[in-house]
Amino acid sequence: MWHADETSSKIDPFRDFHGEEASAAFDAQGGARQPYAPIVEVIRDCSKSDLCQRQKRLNHAVEELGLQFSDVTSSRSSANPWRLDLFPLSLNAAEWQRIASGVVQRALAFNAYAQDLYSEQQILRERVIPHDLALRDPAFLRPLSGIEVPYGEYSQFGAFDLVDAGEGDWRVVENHMGAPFGLSHVLQNRRILSQVFPELYERVGVAPVAGFSTYLLEMLRAQSSRANPHILLLTSGQPGQAYFEEAFIARHMGISIAQPGDLLVRESRVFLKTIRGLEPVDVIYRRVESSALDPIAVPNANAFGLPGLINAWRQGNIAIVNAPGAGVSDNRALLRYSDRIVGQYRNESPILRSVETFHLSDIDQRDYVQEHADQLVLKPMQDHDMLWQLCGGRPGKSAASLLHIAKQHPEYFVAQAIPEPAKIPQYRDGEFTARGGYLRVYYILGKEPIVLPGGMVQQKVIGHRTRRLTIATDGLKDVWVPDSMVQDTAPKRQPAKTGERFSISSRVAESLYWAGRYLERAENTSRQFHTLERLRWDQMAHAEQRTYWPLLQAVATATGQSEVTKRKRPPRDTLPFSRSLLLDGNKGASVRACIRSARNSLDRVREVISPECREVLEDISLYLNVEGKRKLNRARLTELCAHIVSELARFNGTAERTMPHDDTWQFFRIGIFFERAVGVLAVLKVAMPRLVEAYHEVDEESADLTALLRLLGSLDAYRREFRSRAYVDRICSLILQSKHVPSSVNFCLRNLDYAISTLSYNGERALGSDLSEQIRSLLQVLAIFPLAQSPMDEVDWLDAGEIQPKSMHHTAEFVGEAFEGLAKQVEALHGRLEDIFFSHQDVFAREPTLFAME
């Protein structure tokens, strides 16, 4: 046993475990048990400061990835944090073999129960379990009875929560066979801990977990006879505890996420509404309750599902995993009879027994629960929306609220006598303390069932006796299984055909489009205010302020502050206005609001956004949240603008480097270039009329015109192009017609046209070809725009600086009308984009493209 001598500077981090009663990791004498010995040895070699630093790195990695639990009734601001602990749970070979065998046995038995309940109900005829326990279950949906499920596998992917009652006596606390949660946490926990503390994994052969998502994908592919089936993950689209989970799994499996509104049923087939019309779907991996799938088959006033989905499933035209109705196996009241269920369907003794469970509908059991309430955990029999509808609403956060509902509706509640979990070390606040935990183990059924070699440990919450283990947690742990216990049981399939791809949904395309617009708007505003603030408004004379006032008004108008445009005189100090437009989250066009809107748009499509992009956006959001609470002076505000411009450039660079340049990338770019063109014209249509009106030919250098070029990020480009002082017509020529200047309208429209042209494939007619024609017509309008007509081709370039500006021949009213008309033509492109790709008010709504099916 490790000890510190008098000369040692190290203190045993597990000294508090010496002499205590035996735990999962240490015996009664304080010695590390066999599976934990290498872990304890590595940790003892670390100093206290090293361990603290590693835990900080774990926490930082979690924050960067935006990982969190979210209660389905909570806001994101009150979300439970995701805490990952340094010390893993380690299982020896014999212990894991028993757990894995018990998980497969139980999964097969409860699958058979679900099949029986929806068909002959033999278990009820033989009175193996009480009738009301099964038939009163809110998850039991009678309209689904009689539907044949292939191989009787209702729950092909599920999980069980286990508790170690001591000495490796693992008991089942809950079944999760309807829509299991937490696989992403398992994979991320392993990845993060192995990066932060690689020494732990160097001395132990730990079974890998990363391949489990591949097995899950292969299982989904096997549900269809097609070589390359179209697989979707179906989600409700509402924020909840699966917020991060679904995007992570979809990204790892390379499948799309769909909401019920993204789909429709036609002729008993399910189709996804995509940017190319309707595309057939073969397999749905559902992450919503069965009762919320189809409002026709299962009427539910609080559910918005897909009408006709169950009928398509009944006819075998769509595979749904897990099968609708699988949630009956999650009934916690069944745990009291789990030994009977295993015996009924497997004719075997249970390998894993359930914790003692009481159903409150039974008078005798209810009396026992009342007498021992302080020793039991109260739970609803199902975590199901229908249950709370039957009970008149969800409980509040207090234990008394749940207890009150349980007294009113005892038939829907159970109580469990959960053993005190075996203690394992938890690192918190610089020291290790003994804390119990619950193990969640995952399985995949098929010809050769697979059990995830490991799982997830949720630390016990002290004093917590009234809420689900799936939500309440005081920390997570990685789970280790010896790699010698793992065999490659992945199903063997032929490789998918190459050259096939599926279109993105219209909702995904629209979210990316708006994310691009919001981020570009935030960058424009930050950069333009940075330019204006560097002019030092507070040190200008009044006459000089009047010179630059049109530029500030133009920026304000471009960001939706129309009241500033109406002011005839400039304010004495623009700092309050600048601070508001940068950091006021209540102003829709402020930088902070734009970043928040972009983040919300990308949150809805996290499966197509790279983790690196997500990290950058989280950094920007956290930065703005901190700065928004400070009272900023002008110098600090200037630094803030520069920082945001730099960070948004980092985001765009990261996106370009890490995101596939497919349809998702093109719609993000479409949003960027459209917003840039609109933003430039919004500035010009306000600034140009006033600059023309105030323009004096005798000026040696027009400071306001030079500032306008800085504002549009084009001063250097102007100098390289014209090598002269600023003239109105040459500025218009550069900003409207240049093919090479990123801020020019011509440049933006050409990039829009290119992005749209990439949306066709297989030699088919380009999508939005009429939109491309509209863009080309706009390019012709730019080519003959009156203010940009300069006789440059008629003279030598070296003498160009002496030419009189043609803008002198136009009135301010004419200039304003010209830019207003041009801006409206460009803005009209948004309507066409929406009709063709998002709302499908164009030809795809009348003549949907149904791709040929194999």
Automatic annotation (TrEMBL):
Pfam families hit by this protein: Alpha-E (PF04168), CP_ATPgrasp_2 (PF14403)
Matches recorded under InterPro entries: ATP-dep_Glu-Cys_Ligase-2 (IPR051680), CP_ATPgrasp_2 (IPR025841), DUF403 (IPR007296)
Coiled-coil segments: none
Domain annotation DUF403: ranges: 505-789
Domain Circularly permuted ATP-grasp type: 88-457
Protein name per UniProt: Circularly permuted type 2 ATP-grasp protein
